[in-house]
Design goal:
globular, two-stranded antiparallel ribbon, 291 residues, alpha/beta, Alpha-Beta Plaits, Rossmann fold, 6-stranded mixed sheet
Length: 291
């Protein structure tokens, strides 16, 4: 159902895909707190002609643990794996890294996708390709796509993306990834090094919680990719949990009562404006490489 809904607005030419170009079975492994990476990966699968890909969602703690516990389930019944994750502080999220690291490719082909907020993709795609390559995957394609920035409620950046144009390009990326002549390795992947991506630290703006607006529905806790929020109160489980927040703003997007919002004090906002000034005024386009 989701695939058909996504396909409808796209200018699809899947009928041009010859049967012998199509992989028999496609899998999607993604980390996607706000669904932007999910949309890109799904569009790529459509481009590959996969009507019913096997989906492995590593966003939430429980499903991530299940994948790590039984990694063979990811690759046993597929021929090609599309792996996707957002870029956090110029890097792959730690949660996605540890999940991908556990999976062995055993010679299966794979596509690597990162989604960044129109500023910098840092070392994220390089790290993903390197990890897949070292784990025995035959990486045939890699792509950097754009998604609405997690802090766009504070500084509007890449609003509404991925849009139809982005999804069409993701679909074309999937189609082109079937027509490969060689494999990629990490040296084929460009990087954008700055102070943020160079650092081992992940800097995150924490959402603001308004207890008076909260109706204790539990939706924010349900969407939290790190499992930091209480289903009963909507608060962080403890002070240590607050420190672990990755700033994805999935809880903000899930709260219809605006009990959790993305806000920053004047000093932080001024710093963010400096960092995101260019990203907020120009439109970057997806960049892909196919072997």
């Amino acid at each position: 159902m989701y695939l058909r809904a996504l396909l409808s607005p796209l200018d699809s030419n899947i009928n041009l895909l010859k049967e012998n170009e199509m992989p028999n079975r496609v899998g999607i492994l993604y980390f996607s707190p706000t669904d932007t990476t999910k949309k890109i990966c799904t569009a790529a699968a459509i481009g590959m002609g996969a009507k019913e890909p096997r989906v492995f969602d590593m966003t939430l703690p429980d499903t991530r643990a299940a994948i790590i516990t039984n990694t063979m389930n990811v690759t046993d019944n597929i021929d090609h794996l599309i792996v996707g994750a957002p870029v956090h502080s110029g890097k792959l999220p730690v949660q996605a890294l540890e999940c991908i690291r556990a999976i062995r490719g055993n010679g299966k082909t794979a596509s690597a996708i990162v989604v960044y907020g129109n500023r910098s993709y840092g070392i994220a795609l390089y790290s993903m390709v390197e990890l897949l390559f070292e784990n025995g995957f035959d990486v045939t394609a890699a792509g950097k796509f754009i998604g609405q920035h997690s802090y766009s409620d504070i500084i509007p950046v890449a609003m509404g993306r991925p849009d139809d144009s982005d999804l069409k390009k993701a679909q074309r990326f999937g189609l082109n990834s079937l027509r490969v002549s060689r494999s990629l390795n990490p040296k084929d992947i460009s990087i954008q090094i700055d102070k943020i991506s160079k650092s081992d630290k992940y800097k995150a703006v924490k959402p603001v919680y308004n207890v008076k607006r909260c109706v204790q529905c539990g939706k924010c806790a349900e969407k939290c990719p790190v499992g930091l929020l209480s289903f009963d109160t909507g608060r962080y489980l403890d002070q240590d949990a607050k420190k672990q927040c990755i700033g994805c703003m999935a809880c903000v997007g899930s709260c219809m009562k605006k009990a959790r919002t993305a806000r920053a004090n004047p000093i932080v906002k001024m710093v963010m404006k400096g960092i995101l000034r260019r990203a907020s005024t120009e439109r970057k386009e997806p960049s892909t490489i196919v072997a």
